[in-house]
Amino acid sequence: MNKQKLINFELDIKKVYESGKIKAPIHLSGNNEDQLIKIFKKINNKNDWVLSTWRNHYHALLKGIPADWLKKQIIKGRSMGIINKKYKFYSSAIVGGIIPIALGLAKSIKLKKEKSKVWVFIGDMTFETGIFHECYKYSKNHNLPIKFVVEDNGLSTNTPTKETWIKKSKIPRGVYYYKYKRKYPHHGTGGWVLF
Amino acid sequence: MGRVAGYYFNIMKIKYKSELIKSMKYLGNKKDTIFIGQSIKFTGNAIYNTLTEVPNKKKIEVPVFEDTQMGMSLGLALNGFVPITCYPRFDFLIVAFNQLVNHLDKIKFMSENQFNPKVIIRTSIGSKHPLNGGVQHTQDYTEVFEKVLTEVKVVNIKEPKDIFYNFKKAYHDKSKCSYLFIEDGDFYNSK
Predict the structure, then answer these.
(1) Chain B contact set for A102 (CB, 8 A)
(2) What are phi and psi of B101, to 5 degrees?
(3) Does A105 contact B76 at a Cβ distance shorter than 8 Å?
(4) Among the four A164, A175, A185, B167, which has the fewest Cβ within 10 Å?
(5) H-type helices in B51-189, by residue range?
(6) Closest listed residue to residue A102, CA positions, set A34, A51, A137, A160
């Protein structure tokens, strides 16, 4: 999946959404294609697990999930919680919810002596939560096969993260981190849709 | 066995705690089970005393992070384990309500049955005798959990005779449901 295909997928979903066919929130990705393509080069798509958020379309596509399957799920109103067992992909619409689950997966991998890893994608507000910090600490101290990726667009819904926390925490050792500017609104496409 | 007037009778009365120990030993002998919680390797609560027949290598002693513990249990189950996740008091399980309700209870629906993880949750209503733990340590929220949970089955175990049967049933349940077992701390030594 290259950059243009990612962009085109979201443009297609935007069009379908604006036609009123998707009767559920969508959270489109954009402006972070280069960063994600680079990160996914490190991910073993066959064996590794990827856990994502409500903004998960790019992660799902880069994990190898077929675009037509993903599109059908989105049309069914499942955009915020794309889950595919075959592709070891799990996402959730609860802030921070995936992190403890990822920790358990990583623990299971270590107990079973498997070779795979768990990759967890979170936003910058989730990064500031206590749940991230306790899970990060546990994973480091227990040497678990888990990688955290912080996708910092500076916003949580439309609340600036810095406005609430005054300053941002330091990025701990081993955490992947990148900044980007959101291309689409928090949800929807920015226009009125007649349902 | 004893004998009175020519009749044999069972003098080994079934006991609540011994049935729990028997159930945990049974689950501990299964290859895919793993026990997780605080004070499961070390003394400190009544549930610990029911895990004496479970080898330490099957136990994950975790810090106090109830919600993370529930999420971890789900993660372990997604990769093939059957976790027995222990919360010594019902009051503490409240702290794990998020992962229980928003994730474990929703995963079948959200994944369209692709994932059917089995997690066996144990909790206990805090005992009031001989010491009363007070309002934050003795609550019974059974009705609340029964109302909220749609996929996770709630089992309130009141009688010793029901204990082993229900734990065995939970492990072998082909519908691959998760279970919440609610024990009663006052019964550990009174039944």
Answers:
(1) 75
(2) -85, -45
(3) yes
(4) A164
(5) 66-78, 90-93, 97-98, 107-110, 142-148, 160-172
(6) A51
Q: Which residue of B has its CA nearest to A112?
A: B79
pLDDT one-digit tens code per residue, B111-148: 999 999 999 999 999 999 989 999 999 999 999 999 99
Q: pTM of the predicted model, to two decimals?
A: 0.94
Put residue B173 in one of left, alpha, beta given phi > 0 → left and psi -120 to 50 → alpha. Answer: beta
- Structural contact between residues B117 and A147, judged by C-beta atoms closer than 8 angstroms: no
**B92 reaches A (C-beta below 8 A):** no
Q: Which of B141, B39, B137 is nearest to B100 (CA)?
A: B141
CA atoms within 13 A on the CB side of B190: 10
**pLDDT for A193:** 84
Write out the two tokens for A118: 């768990």
Q: Is B80 on the interface with A (CB under 8 A)?
A: yes
B38's CB contacts (< 8 A; 6+ apart) are B44, B61, B62, B63, B64, B69, B86, B88
